[in-house]
Every structure is written in C-alpha cells, then in structure tokens.
Amino acid sequence: MSNQARWSVLQSFNLLKWHRHARQVAVTALESGGSLSIVIRRIEEAVSSGR
Q: Considering all CA atoms of the chain, what is the largest pairwise distance in Å, rounded to the nearest integer?
C-alpha cells in the first residue's frame, strides 16, 4: 500500500471518528445498498451541515 493510500485511509478514519453523525449517515447509506459515491456524498453533506 502506498503512503498516499495509507494517509487517505487514516484521514477517512479520523473524519468518521470526529463526526459521529457522519459515521451514522455512512452506515445508513451502506445498509440501504448505496454506492460508494452515494456514501461519500452523504458524509460530505453531514459534515458540511455541521451536525
């Protein structure tokens, strides 16, 4: 795994750790069968809304 990939994984982990609501939104999107692009969009919306 490249350093860039490791960094990306770490940043994703931290984002979901720091933003509990975004983590729940991601879980809900995944459980409903959402594609990766949908999951990412939902996370971005949750983080930008400040929840």
A: 33
Query: What would the pLDDT profile of 6-45 be if each residue is shown by its tens digit?
Result: 999 999 899 889 999 999 999 999 999 999 999 999 999 9
Q: Which residue has the tokens 């999951």?
A: 39
Under 8 Å between Cβ of 11 and 18: no
29, HSE (Cβ side, Cα atoms, 13 Å): 19
CB atoms closer than 10 angstroms to residue 43 = 20
Cα(38)–Cα(26) distance, integer angstroms: 9
Residue listed under structure tokens 């940043």: 11
- Determine contact, residues 22/43, Cβ cutoff 8 Å: yes
